[in-house]
């Protein structure tokens, strides 16, 4: 675990030894003592706001690079679907990168789409899995694609998303991708990137 270490050096005035007095080491219980404060560095939250619903190559490259260095990476695409690619059948790009898509029969990212109860359940199953990974540090990097649609489609509240970010393990970095990330989430993030195309 990476930590910032702050040390405080405190000067104390010691009386000069008098040769006529026996050598003693008086301890004043009220005197300040040197202290060592260790503050863990919390993982970063990055937000990528983009007009197109694409998983950008540089984000995939970042995930692959981190996974290649031995850190577990979780990539969750809540509204993109793949053939038999739900929780029971994740894809692995390298040994440490787990890629999950929603288990549904159609693309769920279209604006005018009304989700069925089964599709909502499938999306929320991925969300629950991601929340556990974020809280327990199962992955050092968690990429949440189209996280904004979770809130926009009233599957979760903005408060819930913010709480997951605030209570994440200190070892977890998070990347949120979306066309319109809620302002409170953007304000909380350490880095916000707006893409023009």
Offer a concise description of the structure.
This protein has 197 residues and is an alpha/beta fold.
Annotation keywords:
197 residues; alpha/beta; seven-stranded mixed beta sheet; two-stranded antiparallel sheet; 5 helices; 9 strands; 27% helix; disordered N terminus
Structure overview:
By secondary structure, this protein is α/β, with parallel strands linked by helices. It is built from five helices and nine strands, in the order βββαβββαβααβαβ. It has helices spanning 57-68, 117-136, 147-152, 158-166, 183-188, and strands spanning 3-8, 35-40, 45-49, 73-81, 91-92, 97-102, 141-145, 173-178, 191-194. The strands form two sheets. The protein has a seven-stranded mixed β-sheet with strand order 5-6-4-7-8-3-9, sandwiched between helices. A two-stranded antiparallel sheet has the order 1-2. A hairpin with a 4-residue loop joins strand 5 (91-92) and strand 6 (97-102). The longest helix has 20 residues, at 117-136. The radius of gyration is 25 Å and the shape is globular.
Number of helices: 5
Unreliable spans: 1-16
Radius of gyration: 25 Å
Global structural class = alpha/beta
Strand content: 15-25%
- Shape call: globular
- What is the percent of helical residues? 25-40%
Mean pLDDT: 81
Measured between the Cα atoms of the first and last residue, the distance is 37 Å
Q: Let me know the number of strands.
A: 9
Q: Give a short account of the largest sheet.
A: 7 strands, mixed
Q: Order of strands in the sheet with the most strands? A: 5-6-4-7-8-3-9
H-E order: EEEHEEEHEHHEHE
